[in-house]
Amino acid sequence: MKVDILALGAHPDDVEISCSATLLKHISLGKKVAVVDLTQGELGTRGSAEERLIEAANSAKLMGLVDRVNLGFRDGFFTHDETHLLAIVRMIRKYQPEIVLANSVSDRHPDHGKAGKLIADACFLSGLKKIETSLDSQVQTHWRPKSVYHYIQDYYLKPDFVIDVSGFEQKKIEAIKTFKTQFFDPASTDPKTPISGEDFFDFLLGRMKDFGRPIGAEYAEGFTTSRHIGIRQFDDLM
Questions:
Q1: Contact call for residues 22 and 178 (beta carbons, < 8 A)
Q2: Which single residue of 53, 188, 210, 232 has CA 20 to 30 Å from 137?
Q3: How many whole angstroms separate alpha carbon 237 and alpha carbon 131?
Q4: Model's pTM, two decimal places?
């Protein structure tokens, strides 16, 4: 199942919060997009792992993803080792994406930076043909994505580039709200968290406006990258 973009997140809802408007825009342009969640978010203060899986499936349907899987890593305790790297390599080789979107390189939640490094390293290893993997009893072919970009999460990081996502900001909020147990619900009796307040959506839209302003866009999402971004001519820049 080859896709154009594969977005990975340490937890269900990482992708929705940080880069779903970008994914929605590319889906509207005919691109195939899949999401891989590394953990079930079982350590989350609100909701359960079972509820998060249902919510992730609802979001996938709303967004129009071609596929979404959960690798079942231990929330909070997955490590940078061969077992976890190979699990991600199998997903990269399964979907053969041209572009991979990964967690922020540094963030408030330690899983985010840890996952960002893990995903980036797996993308490199996936291109080494002497690393042999199989999935569903089928031997996989080596594959390295053309680009790995890290979305920006809770901490403000200066983006290396931004994508104009004007017109997709409200559907992004709808996708986030499919994770009903995690976000604002006036009827909820669960403890409050940094993302459960009613003003969290204002924060997200404000961040997107901040990223969009320098390029003359109403809303944008920002990304960082470890390599140079190339253009063919100045006119390619906004």
A1: no
A2: 53
A3: 38
A4: 0.96
